[in-house]
Write a structure and sequence with these properties.
By secondary structure, the protein is of the alpha/beta class. Among the domains are: 166 residues, no CATH class; 281 residues, Rossmann fold; 45 residues. The protein is built from 23 helices and 20 strands. The strands form four sheets. A seven-stranded parallel beta sheet has the order 15-14-16-17-18-20-19, sandwiched between helices. Helix 5 packs across helix 22 and helix 16 packs across helix 18.
């Protein structure tokens, strides 16, 4: 972000006398970048200018550029960006702050701003994003005169007229000595020494630096007349004081930190319905991350940048075929489903699946290549990449990283069919034909294998992604269901490699809301008994000194406090206080295996977190019936132990060691659960929870905790070394 500047910026300040001398522009309008020598941001005019300064043209550091998004208030660019925009603006003109000359717009390249995410076209006074498409341009404005209190800029046309009049009338005159932190003196009784009529307003100068703006609307005139008759001065009755130059001088040191980590944010279903949603969601996540960085990671010199990955809108897929076969009744609801849930059907279709995968893969590689081309030092300094995926986006991202393809599953099924055929009785002719078919297939596989080896020796296949993924965050993810339906079953190793090799992705983290109907757990797919272990509770943003996640011990699910037919009141009583944010109480693993079986109700009934579970949970199936079904389904020694055990059996002396055998624990926890709200209804929460991740400060803190893990450790180590 910092290296993508289109303008060389010197430190300046050589030969300048006094703190403000290096910042001032000459009367000819020359642009000085001596601001880089300033130690920190400064507010004007308190000590920012020499005493008894004369009126001159505004320096580049006194002008401030603004941008306005979503038709809200004007927001100031940081000093670093504003100075460079002002330099480009002055390069368009004849110097001296004059208006740009026509025909020279192409002479100045766009200015990269806002951590490199946007560019400013100075000639057209607009800004646009670099990494994603946006139909509406963002207007920018040059601020010279500002409203007292809010420091919002006057509209540029009026500001230019006031500035021109001010210089014509007062240029070269000495300013009053008023640089202390005093309260502004009232202008009651002061005569107007100069006045300027505008289209709907007029401006009065009571002194060189006491300027007021008045509205000439009829209502304002009547109100001003009444107040003056009551004894109020003209200025205090309806005037707005104006300030020349921004409250804070722009400096080159007021710049964003360099980006050491890219976070690609991948959307799931529904993007066709609202194409700009992922951009807004990513912006919300980025804003929350900046708040978290300021509060918890202010000691770090770098930052993580969040980039939206919009892969759906460019796809045509079936064209309008599905729309043409959609009945007109309840059309709005059907269109919503066609624009959202239909993506899941497209992905399970062998005809369109590759198109979805290719779209996301190409967009990820395009964004990474573009970012590195604009930030060449990113790879040189070992920049890292993480991916945050939502909903179906988790499944597509996983398949891209692992290279999974349904053809592999098809070949496995064919091989299984061949094995089953061999076990059946068949005639001599059938055996002969089957033998021929088997030999032919073997020869075909051998030829294909040699062909693959030959291609591999001549042309190396490029990796699917041009970068190594450091962290893969899944939010509201159905990935576990897809893996289970592909035949993934729990193993006997606690390694993440069982579902996602560490060589592909260093860390997999599955984030979900407890009532999200689309989200499923991943840990029980690695080790079966983790269905009895509760997910790790994500810390609240406001938690003071939270326990690090790696130090949080596994805690046992408690079925007595959580049932599939529990009421909202019961759920409220089980939620811990946000002020304490305690870890769930860890039950002794020596409890009877019957109790373990009871606890597994939630794990086995994880489908209850799907829509089906929501619909059928009210049919009154008791936990006892579910427990009997679970116990009946168990086999082997574990099942026999369950039958022999009874409720209330005292803890077994050796079961704790057996249950917590090192090889039977996960190397790292994968499932992380948001804490439920204290007031929301569980069923209402199920409707809203799937889209509640983007605006959560808890999620932002969680992401940055793992993204900055190594940076924070290095910073802490350097602090200890300094001590």
């Amino acid at each position: 972000s910092g290296a993508s500047l289109r303008y060389s910026t010197g430190t300046g300040g050589e030969g300048s006398e006094g703190e403000g001398a290096g910042l001032a522009s000459s009367e000819s309008g020359g642009f000085s970048l001596a601001a880089a020598a300033l130690p920190e941001r400064r507010r004007r005019p308190r000590g920012g200018r020499p005493r008894y300064e004369v009126v001159r043209e505004l320096g580049a550091e006194e002008v401030r550029w603004f941008y306005r998004e979503d038709r809200k208030t004007w927001k100031p660019f940081i000093g670093y960006d504003s100075l460079r925009i002002e330099r480009a603006y002055r390069a368009l003109g004849t110097g001296g702050g004059a208006e740009p000359r026509e025909g020279e717009a192409a002479a100045v390249e766009p200015v990269c701003v806002r951590s490199g995410l946007y560019e400013v076209d100075v000639a057209n006074a607009e800004s646009y994003p670099v990494y994603w498409n946006q139909t509406e341009k963002i207007p920018v404005m040059r601020g010279q005169w500002f409203i007292d209190g809010t420091w919002q800029p006057l509209e540029e046309e009026e500001s230019d007229l006031i500035e021109r009049e001010h210089l014509n009338r007062f240029k070269g005159q000495q300013l009053e000595e008023s640089f202390e932190m005093e309260v502004s003196k009232p202008v009651d009784g002061k005569e107007v020494i100069h006045s300027l009529k505008l289209s709907r307003n007029h401006v009065d100068w009571h002194s060189v630096d006491e300027v007021y703006l008045y509205s000439d609307a009829t209502a304002s005139k009547i109100a001003r007349s009444v107040k003056q008759k009551l004894g109020f001065s003209k200025a205090s009755s309806s005037g707005t004081r104006l300030h020349r130059g921004y409250v804070e001088e722009a400096t080159l040191e007021d710049k964003p930190p360099q980006t050491s980590h890219i976070v690609f944010v991948v959307h799931g279903i529904g993007q066709k319905m609202d194409q700009g949603r992922i951009i807004k969601n990513t912006a919300a996540m980025r804003d929350n991350a900046r708040k978290v960085e300021e509060k918890y990671f202010s000691n770090l010199a770098t930052q993580a940048e969040f980039l939206p990955v919009e892969w759906r809108s460019k796809l045509t897929l079936d064209g309008d075929t599905v729309d043409s076969i959609t009945p007109d009744k309840v059309r709005g609801l059907r269109d919503m489903l066609n624009s959202s849930a239909m993506d899941i059907m497209y992905y399970t279709s062998p005809l369109y699946r590759d198109e979805l995968v290719k779209a996301l893969q190409q967009e990820l590689n395009r964004l990474y290549t573009l970012f590195c081309s604009r930030n060449p030092e990113f790879e040189e300094k070992g920049g890292k990449v993480s991916i945050v995926s939502h909903s179906l986006g988790c499944v597509i991202t996983y398949d891209i990283m692992t290279g999974w393809n349904p053809v592999k599953l098809y070949e496995q099924l064919l091989q299984k069919e061949e094995e089953e055929l061999e076990d059946h009785w068949m005639s001599y002719e059938e055996q002969r034909l089957l033998q021929e078919l088997y030999i032919t297939k073997q020869r075909l596989r051998g030829i294909e294998e040699r062909l693959r080896e030959l291609k591999a020796s001549t042309v190396s296949k490029p990796p699917a992604l041009k970068f190594k993924v450091e962290n893969f965050f899944c939010m509201g993810s159905p990935l576990a269901v897809f893996l289970a339906l592909r035949g993934i079953r729990p193993g006997n190793s606690g390694s993440q490699d069982h579902i996602l090799p560490r060589t592909i992705c260093n860390r997999l983290l599955n984030i979900f809301h407890p009532t999200d109907p689309v989200a499923y757990r991943l840990e029980p797919l690695i080790l079966k008994h983790y269905r009895n272990i509760s997910p790790v509770q994500i810390h609240w943003y406001s938690t003071v000194n939270p326990l690090p996640y790696e130090h949080m011990k596994p805690s046992f699910l408690n079925p007595t406090k959580e049932t599939t037919s529990g009421t909202d009141n019961e759920s409220v009583s089980t939620v811990p206080s946000p002020s304490t944010s305690p870890v769930m109480v860890r039950r002794h693993y020596g409890e009877s295996i019957t109790n373990i079986g009871k606890a597994s109700i939630l794990g086995a009934a994880s489908i209850g977190k799907g829509l089906g579970g929501m619909l059928f949970s009210g049919f009154g199936r008791s936990s006892t019936t579910t427990l009997q079904m679970l116990e009946a389904g168990e086999d082997g020694a574990e099942g026999e132990d369950k039958k022999a055990a009874t409720v209330g059996t005292p803890p077994l002396p050796h079961s704790s060691l057996e249950f917590l055998e090192p090889t039977m624990e996960l190397e790292h926890r994968i499932d992380f659960e948001l804490r439920e709200s204290l007031v929301k209804s569980r069923y209402w929460s199920a409707v809203t929870s799937h889209t509640a991740y983007w605006s959560s400060l808890d999620i932002a803190l969680f992401l940055l905790t793992f993204i900055y893990k190594h940076d924070q450790e290095d910073a802490d180590k350097s602090n200890l070394d300094a001590v």
